[in-house]
Write a structure and sequence with these properties.
The protein contains 9 helices and 18 strands. By secondary structure, it is α+β, with helices and mostly antiparallel strands. The protein folds into 3 domains: about 100 residues, LysM domain (Membrane-bound Lytic Murein Transglycosylase D, Chain A), CATH 3.10.350; about 130 residues, L,D-transpeptidase catalytic domain-like (Beta Barrel); about 90 residues, no CATH class. The strands form 5 sheets. It has a 9-stranded mixed sheet with strand order 1-8-7-6-15-10-11-12-14, covered by helices on one side. It has a 3-stranded antiparallel sheet with strand order 16-17-18, with helices on one face. Strand 6 and strand 7 form a beta hairpin. Helix 3 crosses helix 4 and helix 8 packs across helix 9. The radius of gyration is 21 Å and the shape is globular. The termini are far apart. The relative contact order is 0.13. Keywords: Cell shape, Cell wall biogenesis/degradation, Glycosyltransferase, Hydrolase, Peptidoglycan synthesis, Signal, Transferase. GO terms for molecular function: glycosyltransferase activity; peptidoglycan L,D-transpeptidase activity. It comes from Halomonas shengliensis.
């Protein structure tokens, strides 16, 4: 998105979930419009008093000249998020007047609420910047052969207008294609690190900007964490050196909203983590943990569908009141038994 486009949409930005969050849970409608969302800085949300759900899904209407990629950036959403939430809409040439879903409701990761939390499968970063506030932004992470490692580290040095030294492997690949890469790329529009970089305690790994923002929200890097230029600039100014960074991989998340409803999100599992990983069992364990020892009134068919067709959209796992109650049995089935019965 160029500067002119950003300026044209400045008035709209102040009204959308990408630059705001609902502050009053009691005032939230089931399907709020962008105009109904109260303003906070981009990506900022008030932490819920109870539960772990922030934000809301809402819809906007495509205007002439919009691309889905532009809309995603404007609303603090990444490439894969907007694509999965709107599978029937063209990414690059949506028709004017088309209704687009903005997947703005999110479940906080099951991790300590401190510093920065990066969820790789979700392609999203969370920053607990101050008491009562969490920030969240779309990111790019390492592609399969250069996967971003999980683990706990910290921020170290911050660099503005960094130079970039392509790794030896990249220079060899470029030379093999007949396109020799320079040993150092100076600051400027051709620098893939963008204008701001935050080094991590993991050697050679950074959180940085990009000169190709259309790729944010995809697995395209060589292991580093990329952000939209405006998002990394904001973090660069505010994140202290020594901030804890917890890199996790949670393709399935479950959590309660403030109304006592169990919600879940499911994302495609990273290719390198699929071997030996059972997404359905992982999801059942998460849901079972949320309920404790009680037999949950879960829609097991919905749970399985969510896991088998992950799209990142937050949905309810609770059975509706209209559904016929399950006859009592001498012994209540386990969560594993119940889901097996539900999908026969």
């Amino acid at each position: 998105m160029n500067t002119a486009t950003l300026a044209k949409r400045g008035a709209r930005l102040a009204l959308v979930l990408g630059t705001g969050a609902l502050l009053s849970a009691g005032a939230m409608a089931a399907e709020p419009t962008a105009d109904e969302v109260r303003e906070l800085p981009r990506g900022h949300y008030a932490l819920p008093e109870s539960g772990s759900v922030i934000g809301e899904h809402y819809t906007i209407t495509v205007e002439e000249g919009d691309t889905l990629i532009d809309i995603a950036r404007e609303h603090n959403v990444g490439y894969e998020e907007i694509r999965m939430a709107n599978p029937e809409v063209s990414l690059w040439a949506p028709f004017a007047g088309t209704e687009v879903t903005i997947p703005g409701r999110r479940i906080l990761p099951d991790a300590e609420r401190e510093g920065i939390v990066v969820n790789l499968s979700e392609l999203r970063l969370y920053y607990y910047s101050k008491e009562g506030i969490v920030e969240t932004y779309p990111i790019s992470v390492g592609r399969e052969e250069f996967s971003t490692p999980v683990g706990v580290t910290k921020t170290t040095i911050k660099v503005k207008d960094p130079a970039w030294s392509p790794p030896a492997s990249m220079r060899r690949e470029a030379a093999a294609r007949g396109e020799p890469a320079p040993s150092v790329v100076p600051p400027g529009p051709d620098n893939p690190l963008g204008r701001h970089a935050i080094l991590l305690g993991l050697p050679s790994y950074l959180i940085h900007g990009t000169n190709k923002p259309e790729g944010v929200g995809m697995r395209v890097s060589r292991g580093c964490i990329r952000m939209f230029p405006e998002d990394i600039e904001s973090l660069y100014q505010r994140v202290p050196s020594g901030t804890r960074v917890n890199i996790i991989d949670q393709p399935f998340k479950a959590g309660w909203n403030e109304d006592g409803e169990l919600l879940a999100q499911s994302f495609p599992t990273l290719e390198e983590n699929r071997e030996g990983f059972e997404p359905l069992i992982f999801a059942i364990d998460k849901v079972s943990k949320a309920f404790g020892d009680e037999q949950p009134p879960v829609d097991y068919a919905q749970l399985r569908e969510l896991v088998e067709s992950p799209d990142g959209v937050t949905v309810s796992l609770m059975r509706t009141a209209e559904e016929a109650p399950t006859p009592e049995a001498p012994k209540a089935p386990s969560l594993y038994d119940a889901i097996a019965v539900a999908v026969r």
